[in-house]
Amino acid sequence: MSEPLLQVTGLGKRFGGFVALDGIDLAVNRGERVGLIGPNGSGKSTLVNCICGTLANETGSIRFSGDDISTLKTHQRTRRGIARSFQLPRPFASLTVAENLRVPLLYTVDARGGPRMSTIDIDARCADLLELVGLADKAGWRPRDLTQVDMRKLELARAMAAEPQLLIADESMAGLSQVEVADIVALLIALNGHGVTIILIEHIMRAVMQFSQRLVVLVSGAKIADGAPEVVIRDPQVERAYLGQ
Amino acid sequence: MIVRSSVFLSICAAVAAGIFGAASLIGNDYVFFAGYVVLQFVVLAQAWNILGGYTGYVNFGSAAFFALGAYASVFLHKYYPLPLPLLIAIGGVVSGLAGLGMGYLTLRLRGAFFAIATLAFAVVLQTLVVNWNYVGGARGAYVIRPDSVWPVGSYVHYLFLLMLALAIIAVAMSRAIERSRLGYGFATIRDDELAAEASGVPTLRLKLIATTLSGALMGMAGAPFPYYIGYVQPAAAFGLDYAVNAIAMPMIGGTGTWYGPLIGAVLVASLQQWATVSISSELSLLVVGLLLVGFVIVAPGGIVGLARRYLWSAS
Asked: Domains (ranges, CATH) in chain A?
């Protein structure tokens, strides 16, 4: 079998005396759709932050496409092909919706080498992405004028604009209606169809079950289950973590 | 409205020629004296805006970069006199490097902490200069300037022309940055550094570019200062008015655009020159202080922000 796209080994992270991540092992293969679940405070976001470089891991290693990326800065990891959306949307407030998408195009896609993209190319890609997430008619808006749903779509679109190999969607559906959740799941599955590996962190179980080919469960900074979704959710340990004894 | 850079530069050159022509027509050298100061503040305001307006890092140490440029000239004047344009370039390099160094040491700090660090940087530099005898120490240093320069004639006219050219360079540079990839990168740093990094923006490198450019422009504005004033002492070169004006002018005009600091600098510096002559020189700084307080409270977007709001509600 070929090497996994993402290989996390023995990853540990503490905040003072609190152990946020305790020796996490996780492998994600190319083209996979992985769901990552766990109760609040179980370390999901910390794991994402360590993979993306927002936080530095203290122990263990992170390999991406075969290279150790543990010491790389966030922007370098983004350029290598890891993109993320934030749990709470963090748009660039002084830029328009379309300009928000230009940033990763200019700084990530264009920075990967090859011929420079022309302004026309960049505008066209922005327009495509906005069309894809349904924000085409709001291209010139400021993020503050967007609804919560549109803000989350912008957050996803900006991560997608970096043309990642691995997309990590951190609770991109919280607070959305059923129809909107279905829209975003369909969007992510379509994106996966184009070869993007996706890790989805989500509390909405229906979305997770519909999306995931594999399910990983974190509890108190440790991985307690990893496997086929139908099997994992029947795991007694997982049930105990979610429902109590 | 998009004006091409070549067209923009031609417009700038035409405006500059107009300014110089008008000043010459008045036929009073005081116009050049006062105009020099206004232009110097245009450069300082643009320089501050590159770091403070575009990336959102507030620099309280502008006077230090200005003074570094001035003292680089004093040092070289005593060592081996060079033509002024060359001194301006050297002042730019010295202050640019200082900006790079300061940025490297302080840019891990944010908000008020960064601002305090820049203030400390200015104090440290001033202490060094005060104790450096070669450039005059606390006594200050005299710089005897020639009476005239070929082909301009009067040295004051020459200084005015140089500062006019610098002001155009500063304005054109800011405008070019705003429309470039760099400008987008700066804006993302101002808005959200975490999200910027996640979008592939190398934030530390961009911030260092900003501190270097900003420092270099301030140094270039300071380099001709000894020749303008004739006598430099630390208290003058590191003066509070430079630090305050460099912040107040972009804030009053409107930060984040190239025309905001331009409007602010021209308005406030002219007002100061007028107040200095007609009321008192101490009062001129008070004017700026009051204006700044007023704008921060009533119109944080400055004059540009006010105009935008008015146009928005009119349409």
From this structure: 6-243 (3.40.50.300)
